[in-house]
């Protein structure tokens, strides 16, 4: 059955057509996002939800999203989505950070020009029939120092444009390396230095715990007298009341804001102050940007629903369509290894240790980690998936550790997972053969070569005569057919394991009969989704 996507905000016809061309059923209801109750009523019918900013995806709506797999936001900001609730529900949240980069950067530059030359006030005065030429004395941008807080995608474009305007650019960004800064032609500095040197300050960071109120009253007081501040990023990055006081005192010469702590902003401390330029969140409001983000979200959602590619996800590691093709068998293997261990474990898990060897160590380990964790937790929580698994593990206090190493054995690469409980450690390793099929290659430290079957039976015992015969006879007497059989042991007379491939689930009477023999230390029926 084809995936079904609901579009609850206005999206371009070209974006709708992308879904249709990819074979996805589309329900285009651009005003539905305004009706929360109706959206909550119908959301359970859809695999995907495409939105802009009007639709509010709340915990209540997500509670009814029984089939939802992905939410795609045509734009950058996702404040209208309860991402924590989505993660717990196992729903991927995607945005489109690249579709409106140029538009937002250009708006920041335009706002900088506007506040430097007091263009809005001069325009209003002239429209009013006044000719106050001497009143609106501005400043040049050439030769001035621009402080850029956040030199990522949009901030990087602003840096480039500012250098073209012959400005000096200093940047504060903990993730900006010295080499990258040199290539960009900017000077990497700490925040305090930026505040003390910049003639203009522009913000280009997301709103997080670390960036909230980054221009606090304390930091604003550190700025150079006569500074002008531009915020086209997110509301809540600047203490607006403190900034208003500094504008009134003359310490700050001007400000240009496109975003505010509370939106829609009908009241704000910055409103009606001289040389403050305000726009109603227009950073992405160009025809080109609106079309770009709409097309991008349609492509991303289609790639995920059809091919498993995860692009620009905010609550799960991204994996491109190309990566998904290569990594698909390894993601499946990681899940099977985790699922194997999870089905054998009854006690609480305190730690999960994952080793990646050879070619596996060069892959997207964050995505593989999610698959391992989801596999382990499925026994206790059948609804867990790659999105919700890390959240559930964190809530349970499970410590996750990852180790990578170059090729260290017979195989080109493998994954080994070890779980720690109060009672024991349990491990399983696997690889992907050239045929693309995942294999178990080690269980309990015992080497083995076992494919993954839908219905399996796992046993452990001392290596003594008669065990194989007992297994065959017991299953035969109870009408169960053995499709295949794999054995492994440490040394003669020591520990041995067996994996039996069955045509159907192991019957309870088979498990009981095998236990009654007293030959087996462990007998576990296993089920795998293939």
Give a concise summary:
This protein is α/β, with parallel strands linked by helices and about 525 residues long.
Could you walk me through the main structural features you see in this protein, from its secondary elements to its overall organization?
The strands form four sheets. The chain has a seven-stranded parallel beta sheet with strand order 8-7-6-9-10-11-12, with helices on both faces. Strands 14-13-15-16-17-18 form a six-stranded mixed beta sheet, covered by helices on one side. Strands 2-1-3-4-5 form a five-stranded parallel beta sheet. It starts with a strand and ends with a strand. It has helices spanning about 15-20, 35-40, 60-65, 85-90, 100-115, 120-125, 155-165, 180-185, 190-195, 215-220, 240-250, 285-305, 320-345, 365-375, 390-395, 465-475, 510-515, and strands spanning about 5, 25-30, 50, 70-75, 90-95, 145-150, 170, 185-190, 200-205, 225-230, 250-255, 275-280, 350-360, 400-405, 415-420, 425-430, 440-445, 445-450, 455-460, 480-490, 495-500, 520-525. The protein has about 525 residues and is α/β, with parallel strands linked by helices. Among the domains are: about 5-100 and about 290-305, NAD(P)-binding Rossmann-like Domain (Rossmann fold, 3-Layer(aba) Sandwich), CATH 3.40.50; about 100-280, Rossmann fold (3-Layer(aba) Sandwich), CATH 3.40.50. The mean pLDDT is about 95. Helices cover about 35% and strands about 25% of the residues.
* Low-confidence spans: none
Largest sheet: 7 strands, parallel
What is the radius of gyration computed over CA atoms, rounded to a whole number of angstroms? 30 Å
The CATH homology group name of the domain at 101-278: NAD(P)-binding Rossmann-like Domain
Mean pLDDT: 93
Strand content: 15-25%
* Strands ordered across the widest β-sheet: 8-7-6-9-10-11-12
Straight-line N-to-C gap: 18 Å
The beta-strand count equals: 22
- Could you tell me the CATH topology label of the domain at 101-278: Rossmann fold
The CATH class label of the domain at 101-278 is Alpha Beta
The backbone outline, from C-alpha atoms, is: elongated
**Roughly how much helix do the residues carry, as a percent range?**
25-40%
Structural class of the secondary elements? alpha/beta
CATH architecture of the domain at 101-278: 3-Layer(aba) Sandwich
The number of distinct helices, counting runs of at least 4 residues, comes to 17
């Amino acid at each position: 059955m084809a995936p079904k996507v609901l579009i609850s905000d206005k999206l371009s016809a070209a974006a709708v057509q992308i879904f249709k061309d990819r074979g996805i059923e589309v329900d285009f209801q651009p005003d539905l996002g305004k009706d929360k109750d109706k959206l909550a009523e119908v959301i359970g019918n859809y695999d995907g939800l495409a939105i802009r900013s009007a639709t509010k995806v709340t915990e209540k709506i997500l509670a009814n999203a029984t089939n939802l797999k992905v939410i795609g936001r045509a734009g950058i900001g996702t404040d209208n989505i309860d991402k924590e609730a989505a993660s717990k529900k196992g729903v991927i949240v995607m945005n489109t950070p690249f579709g409106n980069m140029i538009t937002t950067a250009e708006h920041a530059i335009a706002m900088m020009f506007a506040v430097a030359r007091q263009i809005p006030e001069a325009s209003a005065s002239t429209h009013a029939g006044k000719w106050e030429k001497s009143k609106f004395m501005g400043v040049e941008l050439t030769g001035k120092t621009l402080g850029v807080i956040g030199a990522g995608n949009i901030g990087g474009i602003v840096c480039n444009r500012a250098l073209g305007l012959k400005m000096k650019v200093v940047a504060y960004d903990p993730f900006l390396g010295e080499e990258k800064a040199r290539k960009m032609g900017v000077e990497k500095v700490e925040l305090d230095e930026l505040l003390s040197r910049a003639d203009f300050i522009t913000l280009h960071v997301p709103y997080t715990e670390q960036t909230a109120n980054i221009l606090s009253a304390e930091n604003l007081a550190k700025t150079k007298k006569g500074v002008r501040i531009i915020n086209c990023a997110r509301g809540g990055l600047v203490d607006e009341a403190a900034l208003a006081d500094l504008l009134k005192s003359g310490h700050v010469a001007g400000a240009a804001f496109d975003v505010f702590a509370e939106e829609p902003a009908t009241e704000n401390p910055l409103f009606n102050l001289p040389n403050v330029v305000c726009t109603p969140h227009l950073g992405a409001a160009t025809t080109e940007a609106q079309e770009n983000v709409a097309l991008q979200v349609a492509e991303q959602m289609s790639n995920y629903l059809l091919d498993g590619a995860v692009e620009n996800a905010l609550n799960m590691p991204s994996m491109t369509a190309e990566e998904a093709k290569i990594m698909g068998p390894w993601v499946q293997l990681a899940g099977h290894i985790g699922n194997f261990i999870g089905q054998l474990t009854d006690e609480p898990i305190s730690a999960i240790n994952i080793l990646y060897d050879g070619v596996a160590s060069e892959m997207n380990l964050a995505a593989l980690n999610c698959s391992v964790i989801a596999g382990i937790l499925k026994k206790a929580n059948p609804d867990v998936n790659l999105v919700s698994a890390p959240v559930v593990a964190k809530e349970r206090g499970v410590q996750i550790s990852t180790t990578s190493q170059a090729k260290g054995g017979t195989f080109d690469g493998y994954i080994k997972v070890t779980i720690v409980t109060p009672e024991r450690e349990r491990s399983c390793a696997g690889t992907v053969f050239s045929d693309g099929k995942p294999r178990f290659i080690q269980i309990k430290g015992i080497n083995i070569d076992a494919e993954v079957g839908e219905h399996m039976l796992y046993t452990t015992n001392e290596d003594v005569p008669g065990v194989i015969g007992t297994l065959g006879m017991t299953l035969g007497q109870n009408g169960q057919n053995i499709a295949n059989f794999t054995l492994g042991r440490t040394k003669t007379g020591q520990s041995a394991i067996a994996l039996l491939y069955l045509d159907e689930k192991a019957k309870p009477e088979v498990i009981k009969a095998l236990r009654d023999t007293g030959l087996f230390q462990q007998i576990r029926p296993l089920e795998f989704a293939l």
